[in-house]
Amino acid sequence: MKIVKSLFDGMKHARVLRPVKPVIETLEGIVLGSPQTTAGAPHFVDHIEIKRYMSVVILAMIPTTVAAIVFFGWYVLAMILTSYVVGGIIEVLFALIRKKEIEEGFLVTGLIFPLVLPPTTPLWVVAVGVAFGVFFGKEVFGGTGRNIFNPALVGRIFITIAFPEIMSATWRAPFSDAITAATPLAVYRSTQSAAPYLDLLFGQVAGSAGEVFRIGIIAGALLLMITRVSSWRITLSYLTSVAVFALIGYGLGPQTFAPPLFQLLSGGLLFGAVFMATDPVTSPATKFGKLVFGFSCGILTVLIRTFSGFTEGVMFSIVIMNAFAPLIDNIVVNLKYRPAKR
């Protein structure tokens, strides 16, 4: 490791490599971890930094990513590479302009974004979407840690509105070349017929590339919770509120509301609740605030799915609640720590 460290030190001090110093520092952080150490107690047990923190999220997404490639073919891999290349270029340019280290948040955003798209999405649309999401969803706010909205969802919503036909009528069933305009949610809205639950669980239905293999998503959720990388409060409160609210709605109006279990296993709900709603930058920091955030996302998801012109409500509900996250934290803190009366 000393040889590797000296190699990175040499590259960082080389005058010819000075313009790309942020790139070198990023690579050093990924390979060696944080160079910061404490002179005295207390000490950290390990030099874990955000890059390694993000690597756990990527590890948790491996099952659903591999399943997406197996189910829909190598084209999904091309979508992922396009996302990383285009979004990565924007990240590097902003890092060089700001003369700062490349921000590690894109390691996750670049993978999440193509997985929330239909597996037949043209590569140019993937490029436009990820560029818009990274630029307007993060960089204009100052970069990772300062953004209000989840960048992947900003890009997804933009191309959903800009290219509605591509994003709503080009779905593909797993292991098939047949193109369909109907996902399970769309089928239920028009026919009141729910897809078999086992098909939904194991990904034998049309949907976004990364949302269909729900067993893999559940496995990733367990890893994130065990390692405490993501908050179980957001995920469980989100799913619980969807189940409870859908149960009440289905009991009162079965012709209007979809059944609770179907709501949980359809669309991008599990993927969103596990990998997007739990984003530590755009979700509340307080424990009770996380519960409020997840509960509110669940209610909005059911309402949008049921009464709006969109069959899916996950991305809209999370982005809406992203805007309220600071307010939720502020209210929770003010209620918990009231000013002392004089």
Brief digest:
With 342 residues, the protein is mainly alpha-helical. It is built from 16 helices and two strands. A two-stranded antiparallel sheet has the order 1-2.
List the keywords:
mainly alpha, 16 helices, 64% helix
Folded structure, characterized:
The N and C termini lie far apart (59 Å). The radius of gyration is 21 Å and the shape is globular. The chain has one domain (50-334). The protein has 16 helices and two strands. Helix 5 runs parallel beside helix 7. The longest helix has 24 residues, at 75-98. Strands 1-2 form a two-stranded antiparallel ribbon. It is mainly alpha-helical. Strand 1 (171-172) and strand 2 form a beta hairpin.
Q: Any idea what the radius of gyration is?
A: 21 Å
Strand order of the largest sheet: 1-2
Structural class: mainly alpha
Query: CA-to-CA gap between the ends?
Result: 59 Å
- What is the overall pLDDT average? 84
